[in-house]
Design a protein that fits this description.
- The chain has 257 residues and is an alpha+beta fold.
- Helix content is 47%, strand content 19%.
- The protein folds into two domains: 76 residues, Arc Repressor Mutant, subunit A; 174 residues, GAF domain (Beta-Lactamase, 2-Layer Sandwich), CATH 3.30.450.40.
- The strands form two sheets. It has a six-stranded antiparallel β-sheet with strand order 6-5-4-9-8-7, with helices on both faces. A three-stranded antiparallel β-sheet has the order 1-3-2.
- The longest helix is centred in the N-terminal third of the chain and has 24 residues.
- It is elongated.
- The chain starts with a helix and ends with a helix.
Length: 257
């Protein structure tokens, strides 16, 4: 009985070793998979053929390399409840709110228009503060939320979205053209967070960091909104570090590794 259980466990471990090898290498030969999974070629071949029949693995006819299909990803995706974004983000946002006292926003990208949609908001503890409404939409190009959502997307998607942007001046310092936005997005990626000063609204300065899902895709962004007079330049690094940490905490809770 114990021997049977041990054999079953060993078989399962071999399956996951093969899957993890394919996830890491994307495409690999039978020999490479067997070597990295530490199984014999004959055992690896049997496992791969079963996975191909079940639709989890595919083999390229020309190169004979194996790779994962989207079936495994679709199963993992169904296990994640989109509503959990708000649950996990709220915890991180509340911590950020307590640390700064400022208004904290959560935004997602509009799938139809080149805008960010505000889906969650925590009010500032100050009487004079930035007011946002859940459901509010603002241009991607003139908000820190929008730039944080845009910066980590595929280059072709960024180019496609920018090509459809009207660049209407939202605030007095709004970005007016594609070249300026591309330079801003490059800065955003290099420093790990987005920033805007009076681009969306006069007298307002915002910082935002992206939230990633389990596949590493940017699905949301968290921002801190300051009245310009209350932003302390000496604390900029502190603000950005806290923000990046809050976004990373949310990403981790959503399965980002």
């Amino acid at each position: 009985m114990q021997s049977g259980k041990a054999d079953n466990v060993a078989a399962v471990l071999k399956v996951f070793a093969v899957l993890e090898t394919l996830a890491e290498d994307r495409k690999a030969t039978l020999g490479t998979i067997a070597q990295k999974a530490m199984t014999s070629k004959s055992t690896t071949h049997r496992l791969l053929q079963t996975m191909v029949e079940l639709g989890f693995v595919e083999q390229d006819e020309e190169s004979e390399r194996y790779g994962l299909t989207l079936k495994l990803f679709s199963i993992a995706a169904r296990a994640i409840d989109p509503a959990q974004l708000l649950v996990h983000a709220d915890r991180a946002m509340a911590s950020l709110s307590r640390a700064t006292g400022e208004a904290i926003n959560l935004g997602v990208i509009d799938t139809q228009e080149q805008k960010v949609v505000y889906v969650h908001h925590i009010e500032s503890t100050y009487g004079l503060s930035m007011k946002s409404t859940v459901g509010q939409r603002n241009p991607l190009s003139s908000t820190s939320l929008g730039k944080a959502l845009l910066a980590w997307r595929a280059p072709e998607e960024i180019d496609s979205r920018i090509a459809r942007m009207p660049f209407d001046p939202a605030g007095p310092k709004a970005i007016r053209n594609a070249d300026a936005l591309l330079r801003d997005l490059e800065t955003t990626r290099s420093q790990g967070f987005a920033e805007e000063v009076e681009e969306a609204e006069a007298g307002v300065r915002c910082l935002a960091a992206p939230v990633f899902d389990h596949l590493g895709r940017p699905i949301a962004a968290i921002s801190i909104a300051f009245p310009l007079f209350r932003f302390d330049p000496a604390r900029r690094t502190e603000y950005s570090d806290r923000l990046i940490s809050a976004a990373a905490e949310t990403s981790s809770a959503l399965g980002r590794q």
